[in-house]
Amino acid sequence: MPNPSVKSGGRGGFGPKKAYLVLYNAASAIAWATILGRVAMVLQMRGPEFVPIVVDKFARTTQTFAVMEILHALTGVVPAPFFTTAMQVASRLLLVWGIALPFPALTGSTWYSSMLAAWSTTEVIRYTYFALKQVDAVPYWLHWLRYSAFLVLYPIGISSEVAMVLRAFAGPADQLFDWYPMALVAVIVAYVPGSVILYNHMLTQRRKNLGPARKAANGKKAH
């Protein structure tokens, strides 16, 4: 009986493109797993104020590397929608470069730790899924997590991101540039439609990959 989560990712041979995607996704999964492990360990041992000491620079580098996601979507390396991919990557870059870097005092908050925990958990699942998908080796539990974990993780991540932006707006934003508070207001306003678009996109993907139609297709493959 075929694995119900597989979408024939291994057909067509294992060429340079698949080798690249396996390496890219595996390396990204390891990087985010490192972030998740550091956040969890430091939170338990010392508290949120110590989290940025051990993870901030590495998290910023890892998230910046995710601009490759936009390039992949733009060039068709992966069948990902360019608009939603660019939205998510851009919002995260704002957090690591436009909030965490200029306002380090904000990174000692619980919101910063919960944001990184939500991001890293999501990405460990996602990148592991896509690495294994290239070789038709995705177990069903990981397939289910890929299209279900966001139901909990996305609200946590979004609320943490908004809280970080609001804290910057209410605190040190005007010390950076006179126009920065108003720019953050625009960001908050953009979060309203942006978060709805991204969440609805994931709900659509969940119905497509876990809904009745998908189960029916898997049932036909089994016979």
UniProtKB/TrEMBL annotation:
In terms of one coarse class, where is the protein primarily found? endoplasmic reticulum
Q: Biological process GO annotation list?
A: fatty acid elongation; sphingolipid biosynthetic process; very long-chain fatty acid biosynthetic process
Q: What is its EC number?
A: 4.2.1.134
Give TM segment ranges: 20-43, 64-83, 95-119, 140-159, 179-199
Q: How does it sit in the membrane?
A: Multi-pass membrane protein
Quick one: which pathway? Answer: Lipid metabolism; fatty acid biosynthesis
Top-level taxon: Eukaryota
**Which Gene Ontology cellular component annotation is one that this UniProt entry carries?**
endoplasmic reticulum membrane
Protein transport listed as a keyword? no
Instruction: Return the broad EC class.
Output: lyase
Any GO MF annotation of the entry: very-long-chain (3R)-3-hydroxyacyl-CoA dehydratase activity
Keywords of the record: Endoplasmic reticulum, Fatty acid biosynthesis, Fatty acid metabolism, Lipid biosynthesis, Lipid metabolism, Lyase, Membrane, Transmembrane, Transmembrane helix
Hey, which family's this protein in?
Belongs to the very long-chain fatty acids dehydratase HACD family.
User: Any idea what job this protein has?
Assistant: Catalyzes the third of the four reactions of the long-chain fatty acids elongation cycle. This endoplasmic reticulum-bound enzymatic process, allows the addition of two carbons to the chain of long- and very long-chain fatty acids/VLCFAs per cycle. This enzyme catalyzes the dehydration of the 3-hydroxyacyl-CoA intermediate into trans-2,3-enoyl-CoA, within each cycle of fatty acid elongation. Thereby, it participates to the production of VLCFAs of different chain lengths that are involved in multiple biological processes as precursors of membrane lipids and lipid mediators.
Protein's name according to its UniProt entry: Very-long-chain (3R)-3-hydroxyacyl-CoA dehydratase
Q: Which organism is it from?
A: Echria macrotheca
